[in-house]
Amino acid sequence: MALSRVLPTTWKVLMEDDVNNGEHPEARAAYIHVPFCKHRCGYCNFTLVADRSDLHASYLQALELELSQLQTPRSVDTIFLGGGTPTELSISQLQQLLQLVQRWFPLTSGGEFSVEANPTDINPELVEMLRQQGVNRVSLGGQSFQSVKLQWLERDHDLVCLQNSLELLQEHIDVVSMDLIFGLPGETIKMWAADLDRLVQFKPQHISTYGLTLEKGTRFWNQHHRGEFELPGESLQREMFLLARRQLQRQGYDHYEVSSFALPGFRCRHNETYWLGAPYFAAGPGAARYIEGRREINHRSTLTYLKKMLAGESVIAEVEEIHGESRAREIFVFAMRRLDGITPEWFLQQTGRDLYQLIGNEIKQLVDQGLLIWADDHLKLTEQGLLVSDSIWPRVL
Predict the structure, then answer these.
(1) Is 249 helix (H, G, I), strand (E, B) or coil?
(2) Do the Cβ atoms of 280 and 290 come closer than 8 Å?
(3) What percent of the chain shows pLDDT beyond 90?
(4) CA gap 384, 386 in Å, rounded
């Protein structure tokens, strides 16, 4: 195969000019998308195929071809394998994937190496392999400790499996993160509080909490649209969000991003790459990379991605150049997800734009409405702003 025929434009530029020209910072993060799950849950709209282990080998072959387009390994500070479910691969296949990724993205000393995992996949052999391959952070898709919630979410683990998985990971992996979901049909404040209480007993270094969102096109969205179930009201969902915020903060967790909590020193460095508007590499079906002011998104269809890559064709489905005012506004929105907020000086340094001149009127309106606040020269979300943050940003973009 003539690899030069299928090189993404961004990666061509990188190979032609390895020395950063000063206009764009060097990418120091890499995301790899693993599009496999045993089952597609009803709320999931991620890029994946379910129960297709027959495609695993072809995926590894295609990914190796995509990464080889770099031609030169790129040292990074963070690597994140997401999905889908990376641990849906066999242990030997996942080991092959980890070695492939590290060959093209060697991790710097002290770097963060994250892998998403399903509780039912966690066993001593897998955990030992992850540890030996340098994985130092595992994000566990636990979602809940309660059988009624797990069954509704169509998860394939139970309380005992989840607890055993957490204990095993904490014995051998440096950093463990777990996701929790709230706002299910029929869920009460008492149920949500119980999930939070149970998780903090394990004291994972990182916790992500998400209100159930029904994305158009998912099975649950269609069922809800037909009136087959109702979600908790907006006021109850807000109460659940605030309960998590206060309960986790009391346990020593820093609420550092809208959905993210961490013990001191354990923020997800990879995700902060996105929130701070830094460039990053990405590969795999549906993966979106941002390099030198250019965003490229691979085909979301795993079958299309495999077919095109193995045939020597480009797998890029969308390309967007993001510069100037549009880029500055986008950086503002991403960075403001962090509860640390931003300073005008930082914004000027990152974008070359004066914050007040660019969006001063919008900021004043949001401050007047109690959604943003100035504190020690930092512009931040207020607690009220946190509750409605997704509705704020279209006014800025």
Answers:
(1) helix
(2) yes
(3) 90
(4) 5
CA-based end-to-end distance of the chain? 42
- Whole-angstrom distance, CA of residue 162 vs CA of residue 37: 18
- CA-closest candidate to residue 33, choices 289, 319, 308, 272: 289
Beta 76-83 vs 29-34: how paired, if at all?
parallel
CB atoms < 10 A from the CB of 102, how many?
Answer: 17
Q: How many CA atoms lie within 13 A of 336 on its CB side?
A: 30
Chain-centroid distance of CA 356 in Å reads 30
CA distance linking residue 358 with residue 182, whole number of Å: 37
Q: Looking at residue 306, what DSSP letter applies?
A: H
| Integer Cα distance of 143 and 322 in angstroms | 35
Residue 31 carries which DSSP code?
Answer: E
pLDDT in tens, 80-129: 999 999 999 999 999 999 999 999 999 999 999 999 999 999 999 999 99
pLDDT digits (tens, 9 = 90+) for 310-363: 999 999 999 999 889 999 999 999 999 999 999 999 999 999 999 999 999 999
Which amino acid is located at 228 in the chain?
E
Strand pairing category for 107-117 and 36-37: unpaired
Answer whether 328's CB lies under 8 Å from 351's CB: yes
60 CB-near residues (< 8 Å, 6+ apart): 93, 96, 97, 100
Q: pTM above 0.85?
A: yes
Residues 232 and 187 sit within 8 Å (Cβ to Cβ): yes
Orientation angle between helical segments 91-104 and 124-132, nearest 10 degrees: 10
Whether the upstream peptide bond of residue 252 has omega within 30° of 0, thus cis, is: no
